[in-house]
Amino acid sequence: MTRSKQPVCMITGAATGIGAATALRFAQGGWSVAIGHFGADTREAALGVEARCREAGAGTLVFEADVRDDAACRAAVATAEARWGRLDSLVNCAGTTRVIPHRALESIDAAEFERVYGVNAIGLFQMTRAAAPLLERSASPEASSSVVNVSSLAGLNGTGSSLAYAASKGAVNTMTLSLARSLAPRVRVNAVAPGMVDDGLLQRCLDPRSYAGVLERMTRQAALRRVSRPAEVAEIAWFLATQAPALTGQVLCAENGLLLAEPSPGDSST
Q1: What CATH code would you report for 8-260?
Q2: Is the terminal CB of the chain with fewer CB neighbours within 10 Å at N or C?
Q3: Do residues 168 and 68 make contact, with C-beta atoms less than 8 angstroms apart?
Q4: Which pLDDT value is given to residue 53?
């Protein structure tokens, strides 16, 4: 196997939103990118992301993986290794949610918790576990490898689209600390916790009118009177992977000052 001279980034949930923007950012930075998507419904979008990354001059690979399936995670990493012989960064963007008001306790059940945790927490762990040996082998004394977990403000202040979603992102934050300790010194593990992201996960969970209302409310409540775009979160992932050799076990909150405001009942952020 010939080891690629270009560094390689693998991104789960890269067909849309933050994941797609992250793949493009690494491609523009001269990296090869492995673009992960969930299944047949997202394949066309993933191929569109691949085309944009190729236009930026990147080597690409599209892989299909339901991160709840450990075998699929391991197969995806094996495919990237066979292609490039290295993996320098993993960005865990795959995520899911449903909008369920936090006060509607009877509207959420164990099955919903298990579904959300399966992707957002267990899937993130399984993907990281599958990638860890290759990340460790690809690191050098001069440059550690990196894992970046996409978390959420919801995991810090208990807001978000549902109780299950908030709890799953709280688990991501804690897991980031545990993995950073476990994978040091060759692999750094950090997380970025966005607030409201326009064109993010929530947009795919709400009808246009409801989404517009949430967007307006989040913009008004944020101290900076704005919400983020996927490219901003991608830029933080790029920074953590390439420009922050001293950072590990950190959760960077990028929420436009929403933590400075008192959330109103029922507010959602992702």
Answers
A1: 3.40.50.720
A2: N
A3: no
A4: 98
The beta-carbon contacts of 49-57 under 8 Å, at least 24 apart in sequence, are: 49/14, 49/15, 49/20, 49/23, 49/24, 52/24, 52/27, 53/23, 53/24, 53/27, 54/27, 56/24, 56/27, 56/28, 57/27, 57/30
Question: How many CB atoms sit inside 10 A of residue 140's CB?
Answer: 10
Per-residue pLDDT tens digits for 29-68: 999 999 999 999 999 999 999 999 999 999 999 999 999 9
Tokens of 153: 């403000």
Contact by Cβ (8 Å): 270, 97: yes
Active-site positions read: 165
Helix (H, G, I), strand (E, B) or coil at 33: strand
Amino acid at 266: G
Strand partners, 145: 187
Distance, CA of 151 to chain centre: 7
Q: Assign residue 266 a region: left if phi > 0, alpha if psi is -120 to 50, beta otherwise?
A: left
Taking residue 96's Cβ as centre, other Cβ atoms within 10 Å add up to 22
Task: Residue count of the chain, please give it.
Answer: 270
Break the chain into its structural domains and give their ranges: 8-260
- d(CA 197, CA 152) in angstroms, rounded, equals 10
Q: Name the residue with tokens 């191929």.
A: 47
CA distance 87 to 73: 14
H/E element, 194? strand 187-194
